[in-house]
Amino acid sequence: MTFFKKTIAAVAIATGLCAPAFADTTLNVHYPMPGFFKDVMDVISKKFMEENPDIRINFVSPSATYEEGIQTILRQAGTAEMPDITFIGLNRLRMLAERNVNVDLKPFITKDGNMAEQGFSDHILRLAQVGDQQVGLAFATSNPIMYYNADLVRAAGGNPDQPPKTWDEVIALGGKIKALGNGNEGIDFRWQGDDWMFSALLFGAGGTMLSPDEKKVAFDGPEGQAAVNLISRMVKEGGMPVFTKQAGEQAFVAGKVGFAFQTTGALRNTIKNVGDKFDLRTAPIPLLNPEKGRLPTGGNAVVILARDTAKQDAAWKFAKFAAGPYGASVVVPGTGYVPNNELAAKSDEYLADFYEKNPLFKAGLSQMNLMIPWYAFPGTNGVKVTQTIVDNLSRIVEQSATPEEALADAADEVQRLLPRR
User: Fold this and answer.
1) Percent helix, strand and coil across the chain, each to the nearest 5
2) Whole-model pTM?
3) Which residues belong to the signal peptide in this entry (predicted)?
């Protein structure tokens, strides 16, 4: 039985796994990605209902992805179908705030008065802020890390006990792993799907997506140029093929890729899928600018949508519980996400002992001080902007355009998609 299954079993026995016999308030709750979150949601909600027998948690149909989740909530906004609570991808919180769909949590935080004592530091709170609004509380947070196959690193002449600390070192070792032949590839950098991993390189170089007034594209500056040049070098020198997301995952867990760069949120599944096929290790992701570099925060936040005052009070209790130290102590072992709560990360009661026993999880934890919000583009074209960036990264990886051409084209198109002010 896995660590997480044992955890769930222990909590299930302790809590009785039963809903309260009587509840004054029922909260309808929506969340995305059930493959990641169903088990943790079940455990957290049952423990919450045990401690709050006057509140019942009722889960509505989950959404497969963050994108489907935000589209569902926007369709249901203002209707009887809209849930009382939802969990929304951090880069899509702005879409709720600009449409006044969410409930601003600042009054609740002010009334509460001791959020820091509960592990919600100002740094943690900022991850789910949009402008002057506290749109939600960060629930599951991640940063990008380096996964590596220690057996391939060793075969290529590297020392797996001293993993690469710079991108130059990664590319050099990746090229040597590719040269081993036998179907081995050097690098899988998860650029597909959205702009998160491009953000990791851009922010890691000290860059930003837009100018401070958000009127002009800024990712085409020196930092963005360094990011796309690095992606091109991964292909030309580091042995990175044109992988789909699924193909990259399958190749890495099969032992055919030296380095994989993606979210720490995939760690638990990666450990499970690798099994004993090879010596799996993790390490921090290199930064193009170690002094100024930062990393985007992936994951989601719990957001209150209920307009009824009584339901809002109950929803605030659940939001704090889910995003609090207990919730984090369930989410982290079950997924690989980093703690969204500083009390959970530091306290022996919650996760401190877990990290000592599970060192693969330490890479993401060590980067918590570098985490900044995953940038959300203004206006109604956020999804199109993201796809534009991905499409142009594809041209670089496929070598159908130079990094300079692809970056310039992406910048021109994104500029056209920004709101005109």
Assistant:
1) 50, 15, 35
2) 0.85
3) 1-23
